[in-house]
Amino acid sequence: MATGRPVWSGHIRLSLVSLPVKLYTATESKAKLSFRQIHEPSGKPIRYEKTVPGVGAIDSDEIIKGFEIEKDEYVLLTQEEIDEMKIEAKKTLELVQFVDQTDIDPIYFDRPYYVVPDDELAEDAFRVVRDALRRQKKVGLGQIVMRGRSYIAALKPCSKGMLLETLRFEDELRRSDAYFAPISDQKSDDQLLNLAEELIERNSRPFDPSVFKDQYTAALRDLIQKKSKGKSTKVSADEGPDAGSNVVNLMDALKQSLNQGKPGSASKPKSAGASKAAAKTPSKAKAKSADAGKEAEPDKPAGSKSGTSRSRRSKAA
């Protein structure tokens, strides 16, 4: 049984087939922690007044919105003018195109919504559309209006139901050329490529999201719980990698990664001589690196700063 209120109710139409559905948000916002700013001496929350330089505090009914076209020059819009531009909420999502599931670059996906039939009478048509998309491995595309705005919608099967994902428009994305252009077209070394492929193959398994944990949020929740009960708030940091385990090149890194996965590789005993040699090598490398750093480091003038701070003027939303 669906929980919460649907964010959209209407019909999905495929040619002459129309099925009533409801959309529910598929993500959980309350999983994230939010904080209030507190005045430490009094323990009271901070509140902000809306002010104008030279005028002081103002009332909300004196505020309109402005779009900055040049520095300190704005096109002013009232809320009524903005509301008039909102698209009429059409309650129909018409599927106008179908593409392969792999055709849409993941960078376009924005927000996911669960799609469920509106009632039992709609289940037959819902099931047919869902199973047809699954069998053909296709995604249905159309445009949907929610909260006065138009979105590209991608519809696909999801377990016993369907998933609708809104897509970003093309002009919302940055072109990748500016970022990837400096990367050369040189082909990868075949031997290195084979080792990397073997490493990937060895570590391939079905996706299980429960394996990945939000350690930052979990640590924050634990800290909050301890402080609320007056317990110690000391947090132990995870141990980092051994400073002496740096690998000198990619080939060694790949080979060592593959050897780590072999049975008995971790428990293989080392000779005393080999252990001593391994222990000496990192310290020598560190000493050389330190000497090189001293020679390369230029003299810094007294009182120099690593950066400058700039204040930014708040702009109208």
TrEMBL record:
Coiled coil: none annotated. Residues 261-284 have a biased composition (Low complexity). GO terms for molecular function: double-stranded DNA binding. GO terms for biological process: DNA recombination; double-strand break repair via nonhomologous end joining. SMART domains: Ku78 (SM00559). Residues 227-246, 254-317 are annotated as: Disordered. Residues 55-185 form the Ku domain. Keywords: DNA damage, DNA recombination, DNA repair, DNA-binding. Residues 288-302 have a biased composition (Basic and acidic residues). The keyword DNA-binding applies. InterPro entries: DNA_bd_Ku70/Ku80, Prok_Ku, SPOC-like_C_dom_sf. Belongs to the prokaryotic Ku family. With LigD forms a non-homologous end joining (NHEJ) DNA repair enzyme, which repairs dsDNA breaks with reduced fidelity. Binds linear dsDNA with 5'- and 3'- overhangs but not closed circular dsDNA nor ssDNA. Recruits and stimulates the ligase activity of LigD. Homodimer. Interacts with LigD. This is Non-homologous end joining protein Ku. It comes from Lutibaculum baratangense AMV1. The lineage of its organism: Bacteria, Pseudomonadati, Pseudomonadota, Alphaproteobacteria, Hyphomicrobiales.
